[in-house]
Write a structure and sequence with these properties.
Layout lengths: L27 E5 L4 E4 L8 E5 L5 E7 L3 E5 L5 E5 L3 E2 L3 E3 L6 E4 L8 E5 L4 E8 L2 E6 L2 E6 L14
């Protein structure tokens, strides 16, 4: 699925302020720039290859970093290291639920669904405000409760 244009990754409100090599907060979300990305056991090409991501635009949460490498948590709960050059600051979300997720016409309880995001489908994250996030996929957009899709919660997603 091609992702629509999304906003850049900005520091989350209330994110712990601490100095990082990139200057961005940890945790934060990024996406994969390429369709094939190596995931390693440590921060370097000399570390063991754990697996290969095969999903351009996949949302990941950066949980630690060095100047060149990012330790990321993925929607399956796996943690690995990827090189910073394979990540993009654009935000995306993925439906990891058991059924299609409704995208509501308005950011309020009781609003009518505008569309549904299928299980394991990705969407661009446009913005979040007051507990709701606007997402866009394949020409459809709508609102979801913050935390309803993987990639919208500020809290660390992997331990």
């Amino acid at each position: 699925m091609a992702l629509a244009t999304a906003s850049v990754c900005l520091p989350a409100a209330g994110a712990a302020e601490r100095q990082t090599p990139s200057g961005y907060p940890v945790p934060r979300y990024v996406t994969l720039k390429f369709a094939t990305v190596n995931a390693r056991a440590g921060p370097g090409d000399d570390h063991r290859l754990l697996f290969v991501y095969r999903a351009k635009g996949l949302p990941l949460q950066v949980v630690a970093e060095t100047s060149e490498w990012r330790r990321v948590c993925d929607p399956e709960g796996q943690v690995a290291w990827v090189h910073k050059r394979v990540t993009d600051g654009r935000r995306a979300v993925i439906n990891m639920g058991r059924g299609p997720a409704p995208l509501y016409r308005k950011p309020k309880a009781g609003a009518q669904p505008a569309a549904f995001l299928n299980v394991r489908a990705m969407a661009s994250l446009v913005r979040c405000q007051k507990g709701w996030c606007k997402v866009s996929a394949d020409g459809a957009d709508g609102w979801v409760r913050e935390g309803a899709l993987w990639g919208t919660a500020d809290a660390p997603q992997c331990r």
